[in-house]
Design goal:
Layout: H1 2-16, E1 24-32, E2 36-39, E3 50-55, E4 58-63, E5 70-72, E6 87-89, E7 96-98, E8 107-114, E9 119-128, E10 134-139, E11 144-146, E12 157-162, E13 165-171, E14 174-177, H2 181-187, E15 191-193, E16 200-202, E17 211-219, E18 225-238, H3 244-275
Parallel strand pairs: 1-9, 10-18
Antiparallel strand pairs: 2-7, 2-18, 3-4, 3-8, 4-5, 6-7, 8-9, 11-16, 12-13, 12-17, 13-14, 15-16, 17-18
Length: 276
């Protein structure tokens, strides 16, 4: 019996270290809440591999070699709806993307590839707190720069959104600003992109520019995973001059002063005539 368990232990070790066509690798991934992460299979499917993804021991995604069966989340397991349409499966590579990641998504994700040489990979995902929204209060007519806070790399893809509308994008050495009519009418050539940092500048800012801005940075961290960082900004605009109520108050005071001066002048004239 002791010999049996020794043999079993050796077989398990060999399977876990690549002998008999099975190899297990481990990767650690740290992301912030609200980011998106893509876990790469590092293979180009040849319609022969069956690919399965597990969180702990629960199957969350699968794609068959001939594409006859594809599932994610609740489609794979009726009792599992934790991701709620936040899983995306690449049909060409089998890579798995988790969007708008949450604290409850942390854990060990296991990739299993079944082919002529079976393999497995474990991704340990750690979630950090969502970064605080950066607040900007600007006077109308001034300019403001929303700082991306990164040094752009050649392969990074940077996109800016106003509310949910795409307003600017940098891909490689190419940039696009306001590609739709709605954006063009609102900003009218007042957006500037820094190609070194990805930061966005709004010039001659207007009251209608106030609101929420969102930055997404697609970072190719390695061949095993990539992360889309999300950063949020809130911009509020104030009038360049005095508020309307203050202006009205100044006008009223000025009128009263003029009236008071007029009364004094009339009084003095009458008094001088009486003395004469």
């Amino acid at each position: 019996m002791k010999l049996f368990f020794n043999v079993l232990a050796v077989v398990w070790f060999l399977l876990d270290h690549g002998v008999s066509g099975v190899y297990t690798d481990r990767v650690s991934v740290s992301v912030s809440e609200g980011d998106s992460v893509t876990l790469h299979t590092e293979v180009e499917r040849k319609h022969q591999e069956d690919i399965k993804w597990y969180l702990s021991s629960v199957r969350i995604a699968q794609i068959s070699g001939d594409l006859s069966y594809i599932c994610t989340d609740v489609q794979c397991n009726e009792d599992n709806d934790r991701f709620r349409d936040r899983l995306k499966l690449d049909h060409q590579t089998g890579s798995l993307t988790i969007t708008n990641i949450k604290n409850t998504d942390s854990g060990e994700y296991t990739l299993k590839i079944f082919s002529s040489s079976n393999s497995a990979k474990i991704f340990s995902i750690y979630i950090t707190d969502v970064p605080a929204t950066e607040l900007y209060e600007i006077k109308e007519g001034e300019s403001v720069t929303l700082d991306a806070g990164v040094r752009k790399q050649p392969n990074d893809v940077i996109t800016w959104y106003f509310i949910d509308t795409l307003i600017a994008e940098i891909t490689g050495d190419q940039s696009k600003i306001c590609t739709d009519d709605q954006c063009s009418k609102r900003f009218r050539d007042r957006l500037k992109l820094d190609h070194q940092t990805g930061s966005l500048t709004i010039t001659n800012i207007r009251i209608t520019d106030s609101g929420d801005y969102k930055l997404k940075i697609n970072i190719i961290s390695s061949s095993t995973f990539s992360i889309t960082r999300v950063k949020r900004f809130s911009v509020s605009i104030t009038d360049s001059g005095l508020p309307a109520a203050a202006v009205a108050g100044v006008v009223v005071v000025a009128v009263l002063l003029v009236a008071a001066v007029a009364v004094v002048v009339v009084y003095c004239n009458r008094r001088s005539r009486t003395v004469l």
